[in-house]
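Your task:
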Amino acid sequence: MDEIRDETLAKKAVAGDMIAFEDLVDRHRMAVYRLARSVTGNHHDADDAAQETFLRVYRALGSYDPSRPFKPWLKRITYNTSLNTVRARNSRSRGFVGGELPEVADQSPGQSERMVAKQNAESIDQAVQTLSSELRATLLLRAVEGMSYKDIATAMGVKIGTVMSRLSRARERILDVLEPAGSVAQRGEKR
């Protein structure tokens, strides 16, 4: 049996089928969270933004056009909701940067390769977190979600050229952060 398309589920949800809406939520929960996390920069705000996104989606389903793809519409709502969450956080507490406590590293023998891989992943994550919300979200939509430039542009409400420019700037800034720390191989002579 073929999987039901998002657009069909959305139509059913508009007609009052709560199971169809729950299927949409289940299907997109992790992608919504990942985008929210990339914009907000932390788990707590991302969780709040993801929940708010699905509330907004539910309320806005009546205005959704099922002849258009569902994912970019959902990503647009997620992106805007996440930006609103960041703005609200910034207005509540200027200057506070919350973070998680560092994990205690496992020092048992044979763990050195995993430690190096974990440290590299942490370095990359820290470099990504230095990006602005727009650059971070654009990079996530392309690298993690695998979205096309066109779909990213639609989701973020920008032109395709802007998406390409943001991706280029994001990659350059990540490399600039990682290279001095020796976390990545040196780039070629040409930039």
About this structure: The chain has two domains: 1-91, 111-191. Confidence is low (pLDDT under 50) at residues 94-109, 185-191. The CA atoms of residues 40 and 146 lie 20 Å apart.
